[in-house]
């Protein structure tokens, strides 16, 4: 990891956020445990990578905790999905998020059979639940 020059405090809550079309960015207002507030602004092009990096690192930061002690996560609400292959033939899913943003997830071809199985099992369970 590169050397961190300016370290922000530990944020414990997201207070608000806004889209800034004029600067092609998004901004978050974050709060600390001491009730201090800090604003962070991200270029729209880097925001999906920040989301993915944070999600990935949360798993590493909490993997040693027993399941009942891990912090609960708030799910991102999706409004649509597109599946396809990039120019290198790598499969991926683009999720449309509530509010209009998108996040692209790259997959490997070897992930597809397991993904299909999980989708089939979820649909079967939902259908069974609907019948009862």
Describe the structure.
The protein has 132 residues and is of the alpha+beta class. The chain folds into two domains: 1-74; 76-132, OB fold (Dihydrolipoamide Acetyltransferase, E2P), CATH 2.40.50. 27% of the residues lie in helices and 34% in strands. It has two helices and six strands; from the N terminus they run E-E-E-H-E-E-E-H. It has helices at 47-62, 112-131; strands at residues 11-20, 25-32, 37-43, 78-85, 91-97, 102-106. A three-stranded antiparallel sheet has the order 1-2-3, with no helix packed on it. The longest helix is centred in the last third of the chain and has 20 residues, at 112-131. The radius of gyration is 19 Å and the shape is globular. The chain starts with 10 loop residues before the first strand and ends with a helix. The model has no long low-confidence stretch (mean pLDDT 87).
Global geometry: globular
Number of helices: 2
Q: Largest sheet, described in full?
A: 3 strands, antiparallel
**H-E string:** EEEHEEEH
Roughly what percent helix?
Answer: 25-40%
Roughly how many Å apart are the termini? 52 Å
- Work out the oligomeric state of the chains in this entry: single chain
Structural class: alpha+beta
